[in-house]
Recover the amino acids of this structure.
């Protein structure tokens, strides 16, 4: 019998809700279709049927290669499963937690994740103060006449994954 040339017709995954990556810890479903003669395998998974799907953990960005091999040749396709880390506030502190009515302090925070943005609000920060980027950040906070009270500052972090993180910090103003 003649060997029908092996062909990979499709090798895909569907990202959730229009995102361009999975969040770390989610699962990805790989789907494929092949035609022609031969055996089919996926790198990191092993032998699979000529068409089908398999669910894999999405813990880190991984490239899978689907290969169909026969005596008369082979065909392959690569598929990258992109994985993003959600935004996470590692730390949020103030150099001084007690201020005079017009005193100031430096707020320090560290955020990790992919595609990270953040926002500060509270105390006399009238509008959310936005910023972008992971890693250590600083912000100069001034009490601005808020006297004899405790002010609460809110820090929100958001990123490429829909999960957000929030922290609060209290500063006593005398």
């Amino acid at each position: 019998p003649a060997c029908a040339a092996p062909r990979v017709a499709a090798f895909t995954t569907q990202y959730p809700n229009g995102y361009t990556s999975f969040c770390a810890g989610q699962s990805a479903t790989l789907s494929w279709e092949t035609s022609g003669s031969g055996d089919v395998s996926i790198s990191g998974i092993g032998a699979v049927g000529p068409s089908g799907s398999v669910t894999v953990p999405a813990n880190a960005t991984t490239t899978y290669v689907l290969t169909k091999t026969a005596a008369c040749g082979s065909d392959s396709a690569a598929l990258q499963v992109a994985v993003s880390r959600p935004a996470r506030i590692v730390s949020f502190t103030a150099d001084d937690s007690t201020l005079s009515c017009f005193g100031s302090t430096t707020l320090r925070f560290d955020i990790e994740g992919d595609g990270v943005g953040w926002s500060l609000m509270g105390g006399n920060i009238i509008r959310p103060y936005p910023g972008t980027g992971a890693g250590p950040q600083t912000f100069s906070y001034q009490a601005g006449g808020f006297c004899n009270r405790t002010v609460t500052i809110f820090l929100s972090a958001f990123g490429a994954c829909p999960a957000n993180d929030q922290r609060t910090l209290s500063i006593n103003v005398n």
